[in-house]
C-alpha cells in the first residue's frame, strides 16, 4: 500500500483518501478563480481595519447610557467573532457566492450554539429579563393559544372560509417547501416529511392547542396544495439544474458588458449540482438507519419552532421567530449536503462540522424547551409519544422501501435519460452566454 508524507507523519493511501473526501464537504476549494483579489488572503489589512474600528468606537462614542453600552458591546463581540470565523473556520461544502459567506454562516451557528448553552444555565427570571432587554414589548406578549381558537366548526366548509386560509402563512408554507425540496432533492423524503409532520401535529396536539386543525385544512390546504405545490416547484428546479453541465467562463474572457453582468449574477448560483440518491437497492442497514435519523432530527427542528414561541411567549410574527426560521433554513443547506455525503460516500468517515453543530443546536433547543416548560411537558401523554415514534418509524421505513423499489425498477432508465440530457445541454452556452 502506497503512502504519502504529511509533515513528519506518513499516511496510508486510505488515510489520504479519507482526508480528501472529508475536505470536499468540510473545506471545499474554489476552482477556476477569475478575480484573484477576492480570494487572496488579506489578513494584515483585516487586522488593521478591525483594530482601527475598535479604537474609533471605544474612544469616540458616548458611554453614558448603560443599556446602549451593553448593546454596542454585544454587537462588537459578535462582529469580531465573525471576523475570526472568516479567517479560521472551514468553508464548508459550498463556495458560491464566496467561501467567506459560508464561514460567517458557520460562525453564526457556533454563536447560536454557545448562546443556547448559556441560556440553559440561567433560571426562568433571568431568561425573561434577557428577553425584555432585547425587546421591552415582549412584556405584553401573549400566547397565541390563549387568544385564538383552532379547529372550530370544521363541518362548515365554504369557499369563503377556504380562501381565507390563503394568507401569508400559506404563502410561507409553499415557498418553505420549495426550499426544502431544493435541499433534500427527493420526492419520497419530501412527501414523507410532509405527511409525518401532520401526524406529529396530531400527536402533540394535547400540548400545543395551535396544532389542532380541521381535516380539510390539514389534508387539502397543507399537504396537497401548499406543501405539495412547494415540493413540485422545488423538484422541478432540481430537475432543471440536474440537466445542465456547468462550464464556468472567467469574467475576464467575456468581452460584452451584458455578458459580464450575467456572469456576475451567476456567481450567486451553484457552482455545480449533485444528483442525489438517498437510497438505492444496495443500501445497507446503516444507511437506512441514517435516513431515519435524518427524519427524526428534521421533525425535532420543526417542533422546536412551535415550542420555543409557546414557552418563551413571543408571536410568530416577532423577529425572534422569523429570524430563527431564516437562520435555521440557511444553515440547513450545508448541513444536508454534509450529512448526505456522510451517508453515501464510503470514504467519508465522519460528519462535517456544520452538520455536527446543527445537530447540537436541535438538541439544545429541545433541552431548553424541556427545562423552561416543565409545567407544559408534565402534561405529556407518554402513550401518544410512543405511538408517534412507532408511526413515524413505520411511515419512514415504508417510504424507504418504496424509494428502494422505485430505484431498482426505474433507476437505470432515469440515469440514461439524465446522461442524455447532460450531453445535450450546456449551462452557460445554452442559457446565458452564447459563444463562451
Automatic annotation (TrEMBL):
Membrane topology, as annotated: Multi-pass membrane protein
GO biological process: phosphatidylserine biosynthetic process
One Pfam family this sequence matches: PSS
Reactions that this protein is recorded to catalyse: a 1,2-diacyl-sn-glycero-3-phosphoethanolamine + L-serine = a 1,2-diacyl-sn-glycero-3-phospho-L-serine + ethanolamine
InterPro entries for the chain: PSS
Pathway annotation: Phospholipid metabolism; phosphatidylserine biosynthesis; Lipid metabolism
EC number assigned by the record: 2.7.8.29
Subcellular location: Endoplasmic reticulum membrane
Keyword terms: Endoplasmic reticulum, Lipid biosynthesis, Lipid metabolism, Membrane, Phospholipid biosynthesis, Phospholipid metabolism, Transferase, Transmembrane, Transmembrane helix
Top EC class for this record: transferase
Molecular function, one GO term: L-serine-phosphatidylethanolamine phosphatidyltransferase activity
Keyword Lipid metabolism part of the UniProt annotation: yes
TM stretches of this protein: 37-58, 70-89, 101-124, 182-199, 219-241, 311-331, 351-370, 382-406
One Gene Ontology cellular component annotation held by this UniProt entry: endoplasmic reticulum membrane
The protein's role, per its UniProt record: Catalyzes a base-exchange reaction in which the polar head group of phosphatidylethanolamine (PE) is replaced by L-serine.
Family: Belongs to the phosphatidyl serine synthase family.
UniProt protein name: Phosphatidylserine synthase
Gene source species: Astatotilapia calliptera
Lineage: Eukaryota, Metazoa, Chordata, Craniata, Vertebrata
Amino acid at each position: 500500500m502506497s503512502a504519502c508524507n504529511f509533515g513528519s507523519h506518513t499516511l496510508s493511501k486510505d488515510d489520504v483518501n479519507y482526508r480528501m473526501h472529508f475536505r470536499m464537504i468540510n473545506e471545499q476549494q474554489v476552482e477556476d478563480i477569475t478575480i484573484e483579489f477576492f480570494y487572496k488572503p488579506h489578513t494584515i489589512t483585516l487586522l488593521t481595519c478591525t483594530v482601527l474600528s475598535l479604537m474609533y468606537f471605544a474612544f469616540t462614542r458616548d458611554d453614558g447610557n448603560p443599556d446602549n453600552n451593553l448593546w454596542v458591546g454585544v454587537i462588537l463581540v459578535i462582529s469580531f467573532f465573525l471576523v475570526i470565523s472568516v479567517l479560521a473556520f472551514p468553508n464548508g461544502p459550498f463556495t458560491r457566492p464566496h467561501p467567506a459567506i459560508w464561514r460567517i454562516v458557520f460562525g453564526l451557528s457556533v454563536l447560536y450554539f454557545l448562546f443556547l448553552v448559556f441560556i440553559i444555565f440561567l433560571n426562568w427570571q433571568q431568561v425573561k429579563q434577557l428577553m425584555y432587554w432585547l425587546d421591552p414589548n415582549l412584556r405584553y406578549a401573549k400566547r397565541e393559544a390563549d387568544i385564538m381558537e383552532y379547529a372550530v366548526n370544521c363541518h362548515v366548509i365554504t369557499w369563503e372560509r377556504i380562501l381565507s386560509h390563503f394568507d401569508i402563512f400559506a404563502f410561507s408554507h409553499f415557498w418553505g417547501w420549495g426550499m426544502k425540496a431544493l435541499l433534500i432533492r427527493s420526492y419520497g423524503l419530501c412527501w414523507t416529511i410532509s405527511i409525518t409532520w401532520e401526524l406529529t401535529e396530531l400527536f402533540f396536539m394535547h400540548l400545543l392547542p395551535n396544532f389542532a386543525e380541521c381535516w380539510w385544512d390539514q389534508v387539502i390546504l397543507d399537504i396537497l396544495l401548499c406543501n405539495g405545490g412547494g415540493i413540485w416547484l422545488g423538484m422541478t428546479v432540481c430537475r432543471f439544474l440536474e440537466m445542465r453541465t456547468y462550464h464556468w467562463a472567467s469574467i475576464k474572457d467575456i468581452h460584452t458588458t451584458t455578458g459580464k453582468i450575467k456572469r456576475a449574477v451567476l456567481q450567486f448560483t451553484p457552482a455545480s449540482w449533485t444528483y442525489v440518491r438517498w437510497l438505492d437497492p444496495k443500501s445497507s442497514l446503516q444507511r437506512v438507519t441514517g435516513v431515519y435519523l435524518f427524519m427524526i432530527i428534521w421533525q425535532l427542528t420543526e417542533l422546536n419552532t412551535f415550542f420555543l414561541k409557546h414557552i418563551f411567549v413571543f408571536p410568530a410574527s416577532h423577529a425572534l421567530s422569523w429570524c430563527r426560521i431564516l437562520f435555521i433554513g440557511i444553515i440547513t443547506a450545508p448541513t444536508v449536503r454534509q450529512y448526505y455525503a456522510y451517508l453515501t460516500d464510503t470514504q467519508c468517515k465522519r460528519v462535517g462540522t456544520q452538520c455536527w453543530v446543527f445537530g447540537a443546536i436541535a438538541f439544545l433547543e429541545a433541552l431548553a424547551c424541556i427545562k423552561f416548560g416543565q409545567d407544559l411537558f408534565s402534561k405529556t401523554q407518554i402513550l401518544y409519544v410512543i405511538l408517534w415514534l412507532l408511526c413515524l418509524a413505520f411511515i419512514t421505513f415504508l417510504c424507504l422501501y418504496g424509494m428502494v423499489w422505485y430505484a431498482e425498477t426505474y433507476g437505470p432508465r432515469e440515469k440514461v435519460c439524465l446522461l442524455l440530457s447532460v450531453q445535450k445541454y450546456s449551462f452557460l452556452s445554452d442559457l446565458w452566454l452564447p459563444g463562451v
